[in-house]
What we know:
Layout: E1 23-30, H1 33-44, E2 47-50, E3 58-63, E4 66-73, E5 84-89, H2 93-102, E6 106-114, E7 118-124, E8 130-136, E9 151-158, H3 161-172, E10 175-178, E11 185-191, E12 194-201, E13 213-219, H4 223-232, E14 236-244, E15 247-253, E16 259-264
Parallel strand pairs: 1-4, 5-8, 9-12, 13-16
Antiparallel strand pairs: 1-5, 2-3, 3-4, 6-7, 7-8, 9-13, 10-11, 11-12, 14-15, 15-16
Amino acid sequence: MTDARGSAGPNGDTPTRHAPGAPCWVSLMVHGLDATEEFYGALFGWEFQPGPQQLGPYVRALLDGHEVAGLGRLPPDRHLPIAWTPYFASENVDLTAETVRSRGGTIGVGPLDAADAGRLAIGSDPAGAVFGIWQAAAHLGTAVSGVSGTPAWNELLTYESASVAKFYRTVFGYEEEPVVSADFDYVTLHVGGGPVAGIHGVGHALPRDRGPHWVTYFQVADVDDAVDHLVHLGGQVLKPVHDTAHGRVARVADPEGARFALLQRPG
């Protein structure tokens, strides 16, 4: 991973429209919405308000009044992986969805309107990792970044980076910065000269029960305290706290099994 910032600063500046291709939202669909609200509310200090209901019951998480993420309830008959899904900004979601299909990906939901908030589609890349596409109208997306409880980074864990990076570059127009290393397969995706997401090829180290998937990193003030709190709330630790060049990180999961990471930035 690397350093990235969203559309607004930690002082609650007025959010701006996300550049095409930039991560602009993260959303989680679960079976127990009330329990999930309690978990993330306690972990990150989020409060909740109703959002568009096109895909069923849905709430937006707010931090100090600023929208940071979405939570929804899966229909009882849908047995989908419980996973955080990043949404990438698009100026024309229908055109982007067509490009996804033409490059070997699939579109599973939409494109469809989410009331007056915007227009969305949910798809998967050729390796099977699920992501969203968001064309903003009234709802611009994540409205604050750089503080505890906000999305800090999105990273794709997949078999190998080169072909998958080519797919995302074609769909969203990214510039690529590969890591030149014989034993580390990583590509950083850039928009407008700045890093926005990463693709990590891990080969057979990919969890067999999960397959290729995006991981959202949430910023915290103290990752050790956050991990202790998470376990107390019923979450689990997948990879204990460890130091990286970009801060202290832990891989974790919520009580329903949705995987994410906690990041404490240096300094």
